[in-house]
Design brief:
Carbam_trans_C_sf, 7-stranded mixed beta sheet, 5-stranded mixed beta sheet, Carbamoyltransferase, 20 helices, alpha/beta, 546 residues, Carbtransf_dom, ATPase_NBD
Length: 546
Amino acid sequence: MKFLGLNAIFHDPAAALVVDGEVVAAAEEERFSRRKHGKRPVPFSAWELPEQAAAWCLARAGLKPEDLDAVAYSYDPALVRPGQQGLDARWEDLRTTYARRAPYFLATALPGLDPAQVRYVPHHVAHAASAGLAAPYRDSAVLVCDGRGEAVSHLAGRYADGELSVLAAQELPHSLGLMYEEVTEHLGFMRSSDEYKVMALASYGEPRFLGELRELIYTTGDGGFRVEPIDWAGYAKRLGRGDTWSEDHADLAASVQKRLEEVLLELAGWLHERTGERRLTMAGGVALNCVANTRLLAEGPFDELWVQPAAGDAGTALGGALHLAQAFGEPAAPMPGADLGRGWTDEELAAWLGAARVPYERPADLAAAVAAELAADRIVAWFQGRSEYGPRALGRRSLMAHPGRAANTERLNDVKGREQFRPIAPMVLAERAHEIFTRGPVPSPYMLFVHDVRPEWRDRIPAVVHVDGTARIQTVDRAADPLLARMLSEFEARTGLPVVVNTSLNTAGRPMVDDPRDALECFGSAPVDLLVLGPYLIRRGQVFAS
């Protein structure tokens, strides 16, 4: 059977396809449209659909819209409660209207689709399915926290043999995700976009406002929580506003971050008591907070924690498709990895380079050639295989550099045009990770946890060590990614360091590179020394030779 899942209602529109229980494709609309997050998270953008992503998913499988058994839309307008506190009364009716008419919008966007094939999947159920049904095990507790769905902001439940039991849900206006969005905005960042910047800034501060936040943000003992009104404007007056961030701003970020971690620990404790499960799966935007995830695994009651790599709203497209597959009696297999997007053959990549009239070479040993360039302290844009689903660069669309040069942190942030307090991350062979990193889980293929860097390594790989002595690592499995693994081995042979810097291949405010044109444009506009496009190597000095 064939199920297409779509996310469109809030932000990060995306599409995913499940065929005969297998995840075939998943992609975010931003990678096609080149608009960061696909669209703005406002009610009057709810009509915008992931048309290009959906069309590509179908084309990937050689399907037409009329071949689908059902389409999941990850929002159920019937669950919206008019006038409910916490909703935007001026615009909520418009959002709900668009959602109700979505089947007809989709029939227009995907000619041949019968509107009756569209099924509404509640937003948090879709999030839960993206975790509990995509994880490598069938039974788990599941925790979803984000900004909001139709009428709630959280779900706690259990998957047993693929069937979901909901044990708790927190009604709006109480929301951990919206709380984090609000502090993001009041610190001068963009809400529903830059929350990860708050997490990074928090490492520079002390949680001196934690006491007052504990009185305003607390659990209720029944699987839920409360977020009382917080006077962020008052904090802004106390801390000051401007173009730069002070120690006070970092302290506020640290306080919010710590309180979030504490509340998640309490919610997880309640869920563990109710389910007795050893394993926890998570989704929702809050699950992208890798610092909180690490503390939850280290101090919480669960032995294992699996987080959906596309934990934000984009992941509800996959969750919706998986939920329908399960509902139709076709249990889905675990997702095979995050590389679910577009890819090109070597011949297609050569045609792109020929059309661009770019000089290139094809080294006999690509891994060794790239390792030599990295060892010489050159910045490499790395484009391989199918693109990643979710916000993390995982060795498919990455910028790489030497981790032993402390200046490379500032250098890469300059290349990307972003704030200097932002950390850059390491990739490491899975079998070598324990030598260098502690505390976080290994393997960690999706960059969803932070690890402490062993003291003896901090001076050896300073570019990837955050101010608090941690790093958000990606472990590389030799069997799953032999080319990347060989490059890491070749780099170690030259430098003695089994680690390479890995950050996303994009510049600030733009989506991650997806297709060859994106890669060439980014290479042409950013001071990157080398572009690796499949088996081909393009040198900046040759392209821009005078």
